[in-house]
Amino acid sequence: MRKLLLLALVGLGAQLVDGSLGMAYGVTSTTLLLAIGTNPAAASATVHLAEIGTTLASGAAHWRFGNVDWKVVAKIGVPGAIGAFAGATFLSSLSTEVAAPVMALLLLALGVYILVRFTAFGIRRDRLGLPLRKRFLAPLGLIAGFVDSTGGGGWGPVGTPAILASGRLAPRKVIGSIDTSEFLVAVAASIGFLVGLGSENVNFAWVAVLLVGGVVAAPIAAWLVRHIPPRILGSAVGGLIIITNARTLLRSDWIDASDGVRYTVYAALYLVWGLALAYSVKQYRAHRDSETTEAVESLAEERPKATVGA
Hints:
Elements: H1 2-21, H2 25-35, H3 40-64, H4 70-92, H5 96-121, H6 134-151, H7 155-166, H8 171-197, H9 204-224, H10 230-251, H11 259-309
Helix pairs in contact: 1-2, 1-8, 1-9, 2-3, 2-10, 3-8, 3-9, 4-6, 4-8, 5-10, 5-11, 6-7, 7-8, 10-11
């Protein structure tokens, strides 16, 4: 019962992050399932089955708040579904001994990408309004869908930063469109896992509690996307994913590190994570203060003109 309650809370927390940042539901949930000893393919299958419901609820909530660009959803979602099905069948064919460290390595790489991308660069805003082309979105969807299935998450970590980096779509619409298109990815991945694994290898009680937590959080996250600084949240989530999956890798047969080595690595990672968070907070505040100053100066310049005109 405690495990089910914990999974429900994880589903809720992961969806709050995913819905407000455009990533990390699958990565966060799969990381926890791996940490408690779940078979990698079964863990990814469990998360993707739950995501059918959470992404549907999240997409509906984002649509209600005006956060969805349906052209982007269509151009990236269909190739994403193809890649997700291929990734699911591939992961299902691997043995547990091989799949566990492979998945942890993928998740670790995604965590590093999230941490560096949001800590160092923030979000580009100078190219808003330019069209996103199919020749960019289709390959991106195919790769992101494959990584999502094999890594237990990755649709958001690959898709969201790539579109944000283009600077062509407002952040809230990037997040809403990625979350909505993920429904197609979740359906395709789930079919692939059920074909490759069979339903007997999936714990449907875990699917249900992850789903409940995610559905409760979906509308809250769609509202929060307008209020939480993505730069800070991205740094926080990236660091968490790195530390958790580094633990899995250090304990795996690939490395089998001693206690001294593991604790040294953990200490170094926590230090880097803390510095990254501090830097993100500092940059966010500096950017916010700069925007406030520009707004005040602009208002001050307009007032004399209004007086002269009167």
